[in-house]
Amino acid sequence: MNNLEPAIPELLKGLSRLFVLPVNAVLSVQAIILNFAWNADHWAVTLLKRIFLYMPAVAIVVGLWCTLFTCYTLIFRGQRLQLLGTVLVLWWDVTRSVWLFWAGMGKFLMVAFGACWGLLRLTVGILIELIREIVELPFVLTGRATASLRQPGVPWIAFLLTVLWAALEAAVFAYILNPTMTEILSDMVGAETHKYLLPVLFVMLFFLISGSFACIHVLVEAIEKKDIKAIIQMGIVEASVMFVEVAFFYRELIDSLTPWIAQQTGWQMGIGQVVFLSSLGWVGIRGMVWFLFARYGTPTLLALIARQRLTNEASPKAASAGSEARLDVVFKKLKSEQQWFKDEAEALLEAAVLPTFQVIATALNFCFVLFLSKPLFSVPFKDLGQAGETKTLLQSLFSLREASLRGAK
Question: How far apart are CA 386 and CA 376, in angstroms?
Fold first, then answer.
């Protein structure tokens, strides 16, 4: 403007200065307002100013410029008094929108705090429920296991005891036979170390002892059915099994006790006495184990090996129903809070966006009054729906333009 001033005729310089003076005043006021709303001595004050003051300051600056340019164009417009009244009402809207902006920011903080507090309560409630279920789970499972074991059905206790006894007996005899088998293998292959001998020996003895119980089971069934042919066959097989176990397993056990017996009684046992005592030991141990639990666990073991159908357990659905009920507790709680999440998200979004929209809409109304003589938005907004969609705003804008053209005509 200083560069244009010499080109203006002398008669019009006073009038030009009259028009330029308000512009310079608005520029000075704009610099003061924006600088005050943007800068501060402390970073915390600067942050608060930029959050709470800068947007209202921009709206005030836009209102000043639009008001100034509207006053410049009054001589070309119709319905000047109505236009001035509209401008004054817009300044009232600026005051109200700025106040609502600050109040809306406070509302946003309260809504955010309430949402965080509700989310924290929900999270703590779910965690407490999960912890309670985890703590109670071992007791529930133990109670159900004992309840299922007390009910008629598959003799799992006898089955487990049979398997454990076979493993225990295999471990004992594998340890006893390990030196003898090591010496035999060393003589056969010429190697001194056999680090995998003990596990292999344990597996072989486990299946051999389990097979011994299976032979006894088949022999007992043959005797109950009075099948002479099966009794003779299984008697020969059981005698052979007894010979193998007595000769290789129980004999070693009795041989380890022979020095102690000779020291205590002075009786030097020969091979006959050793075999006799070994046979008695085999019969005693097999009889004790058989009548205690093996006669109930061996059929289950054979059924599992043969993939035969076991006796149906009592109410398997009831056991799974309890597990599903524990999981449904958390899912139902989340499902019941689904509407709360939706409502809180909408309230938080509206509280965060609506105050800013109030100020922006007020600033835009000044621009629309400058060009179209009428505001576009009706402030304050009660909800986001009143802000209007783009299509609706364009239709309103076209309506304002046509009304302004008719007014100009």
Answer: 12
Positive or negative torsion for Cα 223, 229, 230, 234: positive
Sign of the C-alpha dihedral, residues 277, 282, 285, 286? negative
Q: Give residue-wise pLDDT tens across range 257-293.
A: 777 777 777 767 777 777 888 888 888 888 888 888 8
Instruction: Report yes or no on 344 lying in a domain.
Output: no
Q: Which two tokens stand for residue 324?
A: 């599903």
Residue 268 φ/ψ, nearest 5 degrees: -90, 110
Q: Does residue 123 sit within a domain?
A: no
How many distinct structural domains can be found in the chain?
1
The predicted-structure confidence for 76-100, as pLDDT tens digits, reads as follows 777 778 888 888 888 888 888 888 8
Residue 8 lies inside a defined structural domain of this protein: no
Q: What range does the domain containing 212 cover?
A: 154-311
Mean pLDDT of the chain, nearest integer: 76
Q: Which residues of 169-203 are buried (b: 16+ CB within 10 A; e: fewer)?
A: bbeebbebbeeebbeeeeeeeeeeeeeeebeebbe
Length of the chain: 409
- Asked if the model's pLDDT at residue 170 lies above 80, the reply is yes
| Residue 399 token pair | 């309506």
C-alpha 72/C-alpha 74 separation (Å) is 6
Residue 20 lies in a domain: no
Distances from the Cα of 292 to the Cα of 156, 218, 323, angstroms? 14, 17, 35
- Contact between 219 and 234 under an 8 Å Cβ cutoff? The reply is yes
Question: Which positions ≥6 away from 351 have C-beta within 8 Å?
Answer: 104, 107, 108, 111, 112
